[in-house]
TrEMBL record:
Organism domain of life: Eukaryota
Species, as recorded: Drosophila persimilis
Keyword Ribonucleoprotein: yes
GO MF assignments: structural constituent of ribosome
Pfam families registered for this protein in UniProt: L51_S25_CI-B8 (PF05047)
Biological processes, Gene Ontology terms: mitochondrial translation
Coiled coil: none
Protein name: Large ribosomal subunit protein mL43
Family statement drawn from the similarity comment of this UniProt entry: Belongs to the mitochondrion-specific ribosomal protein mL43 family.
Keyword vocabulary terms for this entry: Mitochondrion, Ribonucleoprotein, Ribosomal protein
Length: 189
């Protein structure tokens, strides 16, 4: 097990600003594309800028796009989110399609998902006063000493009677009544 989680910020998972309960607010505030104009590792980034960047900017008017040429540096995507987090991705030797996927990933994230060590696996804004549910919460006390697999344990508690079982019970009752009538007639004779 690695200790890389020790260097991450820790916190509780939260939906940013109750996003999705009303209208959707894109959490990506700005994206910066850094590349070299003539370095070979930036070819995919240059192709993306030439072919897809204008369409991306038209489809997402709420996202500010910066293009930053830098000499002799590796291509980088930097996404900045409304909560102040920054996501940094190296795009060295990436193709145009891969960069399109990375940009789409940055656009759909909320910024804190990958850079946050979760302190709990679940979170709710309104915690229950009854406590969390466990698998042993509503289990009957008779189940503690049973060996599994068990036919009795597999039956649901207080199961409603099936139609077939009701018919069998009615038949037995009628048969008992019929037998009692026959016995009473024999006694009368």
């Amino acid at each position: 097990m690695s200790n890389s989680h020790l260097f991450l910020k820790s916190g509780f998972p939260r939906a940013p600003l109750q996003n999705g309960l009303g209208r959707y607010v894109c959490q990506l505030q700005r994206i910066t594309l850094k590349f070299c104009k003539n370095n070979g590792s930036s070819k995919g980034m240059r192709d993306f800028i030439e072919n897809h960047l204008v369409d991306f900017a038209k489809e997402n008017p709420g996202i500010v796009v910066y293009v930053k040429p830098r000499r002799h540096r590796t291509p980088v995507l930097v996404g900045e989110y409304l909560n102040g987090d920054r996501e940094w991705l190296s795009c060295r030797n990436s193709t145009q399609e891969e960069i399109t996927k990375w940009v789409d990933l940055l656009r759909t994230q909320n910024g804190s998902s990958s850079s946050l060590r979760l302190r709990k696996m679940w979170h709710t804004d309104v915690p229950s006063i009854q406590g969390p549910w466990t698998p042993f919460l509503l289990r009957s006390p008779e189940a503690h000493g049973q060996e599994y697999p068990s036919v009795e344990a597999s039956k649901p508690l207080d199961a409603p009677q099936t139609a077939t079982e009701k018919l069998i019970e009615l038949f037995r009752q009628q048969k008992q009544l019929g037998d009692e009538d026959v016995l009473s007639q024999k006694r009368a004779e």
